[in-house]
From TrEMBL:
Species this chain originates from: Jiangella asiatica
UniProtKB keywords: Oxidoreductase
Protein name: Flavin reductase
Bilayer-spanning residue ranges: none
InterPro entries assigned: Flavin_Rdtase-like_dom (IPR002563), NADH-dep_flavin_reductase (IPR050268), Split_barrel_FMN-bd (IPR012349)
Domain annotation Flavin reductase like: ranges: 1-150
GO MF annotation terms: FMN binding; riboflavin reductase (NADPH) activity
Length: 156
């Protein structure tokens, strides 16, 4: 599956005591247009996994190629209770207090729709309640072969 290229997003949520949590994710998909649903797969042993079960909402920013440092930051190993500090990346608070990074190519705000057990992951399905209109990124970041890349030239 490492050979399957995908976009890179940063999933953000506030933990129960109001701390920022962010996780770089690549298992992301549009699921439905009506109602608008997206899904993201989160490993059960990741520090923010359990937070998603109690969150009122969460957001995903689809990262731009120049946000590589942010992608690495969100992908680092952390333990439960760890603190994230996203102050060095431009962003704003979304509807449930979670962060949207305005340098991304797109961003969605979601409310929980369903959580599905899937082996060592949980499939987190969110209903999109808002699409960010203030993101400024132009070139998306792509993940393939365990590395990050900008997209290449179009193939006719």
């Amino acid at each position: 599956m490492a050979r399957l290229a995908s976009g890179v997003a940063l999933l953000t949520v506030l933990d129960p005591v109001g701390r920022d949590c962010g996780l770089t994710v690549t298992a992301v998909s549009s699921l439905s247009l009506e109602p608008p649903l997206v899904l993201v797969c989160v490993m059960k042993d990741r520090f923010m996994h359990d937070t998603l079960f109690v969150a009122d909402g969460w957001s995903m920013t689809f990262l731009a190629a120049d946000q590589l440092e942010l992608a690495h930051y969100g992908a680092r190993d952390r333990h439960p209770g760890a603190r994230d500090d996203f102050a060095r990346w431009p962003g704003r608070r979304a509807g449930h207090g979670e962060l949207i990074f305005t340098g991304g190519v797109a961003a969605v705000e979601c409310v929980p729709n369903e959580l599905v057990d899937a082996g060592d992951h949980t499939i987190v399905i969110g209903r999109v309640v808002r699409v960010a209109s203030d993101v400024t990124g132009e070139v998306p970041l792509v993940h393939v072969d365990r590395g990050y890349y900008p997209p290449g030239d179009p193939v006719s």
